[in-house]
Fold:
Amino acid sequence: MSLITANNLSKIYRTGEIETQALKSLNFEIEPGSFISFIGPSGSGKTTLLNLIGCLDKPTSGTLKVADVLTSKLTRREAAAFRGKNLGFIFQDFNLIPVLTVYENVEYPLLIVQNIPAKERRNRVTSLLKTVGMMDQMNKFPDQISGGQKQRAAVARALVSNPKLVLADEPTANLDSKTAFMVIDIMRKMRDEYGVTFIFSTHDPKIVGEVETLFTLEDGKLTGRSNRKGGSHA
Amino acid sequence: MLELFKIALRNLIRYKRRTLLTSSLIAIGVLFVLVFIAASSSFKYLMIGQITDSMLGHLQVHKRGYMASIDSLPLTLNLSEKAEKKLEAAIKDISEIEAFSPRIKFGGMFSNFIETTNIRVNGVYPEKEIATIPLFLSRIKQGEKAIKKGEILIPELLASGLKVKLGDTVVVIATNQDGSVNGKQLEVGGIIESVTGPGGRDGYIHIEDAMEILRMEEMEISEVAIRLKDFSKLNKISSQLDSNLSQHLNKQGKQVFDVRTWEKLSPFYNIARMIDVMTIFIKLMLIAIVLVSIMNVMIMAVFERIREIGTIAAIGTMPEKILSLFLIEGFSLGVSGAVVGNLLAFLAIFLINIIKVTFNFGRQSGLVLTPSLKTGDILFVSAAVILVSVLAALQPAFKAARMEPVDALRHV
Structure:
């Protein structure tokens, strides 16, 4: 059974009288536990698609089902609740909350979004911080750690609420090669360990070489899908 | 909720200078408003105290119609002995009345045998008068602090104008109720401090001397001044006394007695009202300062943190929590400004009381300002500041809560 099903998914942006068709009748399915990437040049619709899958935006037409929920029909509040329960986000610029420590940033979705009891929160945050190798940095604030460490903390935050799906928009764009591969390894490990689906939007060859399925987008259309064996850098 | 407070407070600390400036602005506003309220209240109540405790009393009762002709002090509108007895009985029925003083007031001529001038004379029972207006004795600048038979206490301006000294013999001449004129020689027993207002030319004699000058065979009273045990119950007691006296009607079926509080007897009441109006404007200015400064700082905060708002919204934070986060920031700014402002106001008022600021009011000089803060004022100002802070944060907070995460995340 598919985790994500898109049928004739389209998105049109309107600015005054100008219409820009960002996505054109996309049809695809993504299985649970996938490690996939959407690739394509700038303006091809990668980020728009990720925003639709992430319930951050709504399609102009077509349907999108994520984890058995027709997300294109969700209200603003329902979408927020759905994101909090089912999705994790990793951003190009890490987007950690600057006034919270690494520990508090990872804890945030459990505390503010899901109201998980303190003991369980502590166990889940500590476990993830150990997995991403950030235990020794947990009391530091984002401006006191490196870019790679920030992204590892962001990965921990995205996974702490046990989401079905993690969406990562250019997650390695601001990292050097060594750190990028380290972060990719962590994400793959998380997928293997927890069965979480990872979807990337990138044109970074490091990620392209690591994912198992590659969707190619050009001018808002899906022009290709290739299955491959990831983990080439090893 | 505690976590939202933690995040909000850290965000405020993150922009230290801005937070400090905004809190300081609010604190200074609170400081000035509280000090103004304390000082103006002190001035107001000092003046009311001076007027009521040295001259008017808290309440006065006259025969209806007397106040309309007060300038001529009409003897024809005095209360008869019978009416005065009824009035005394009604006064004694009210336990909250501490003292009362019947007075005969009349206008007359005052002469040192060389020069003559006009004078307003109060014939009083000394013990009752002093019990009703306890500051009266402190107004006696020269002479024994008493009102004795055969003596007159005259205002210092009159004494200096006519070059009359303590112990001099003077004569007071007045027209009686039947139109005849009578006079009596009196010794100047004391010189009293002149006061600002209509009582500035008042002399004081014993009530029996007044009866003699006016050739009264029976006691007739111009007014009864009343002192309450608790000044704050003024309006309540005034209404009660008025109600008790309302049963006494004249032949035309109208009330005999006219009960008036000091407010309706002294022009200073208008000054007191003006002080109250000024206080309201000062409070409104504080509200404007808080509103503008908090709104400004919160709009800035939302604008600078659009991507952060996008991030927390993307990871599932509900709009109401985002709203709360910014409202708490506004609330915290208001609370910190109010607390610091209150502390500074306490300190400033403490210092003013140590320094002993003095001022002059009319002929009275060296009055010491003793400002103090009332719990009601502190609570009102603090609550207003905090409430306005939250209201000022409402618009920016709504903006943040309604932000579409996809747009917020795109913001550069």
Remarks:
- Residues 16-56 of chain B form the longest helix (41 residues).
- Chain B touches chain A at residues 3-4, 7, 10-11, 13-14, 307-308, 310-319, 321, 404-406, 409 (CB under 8 Å).
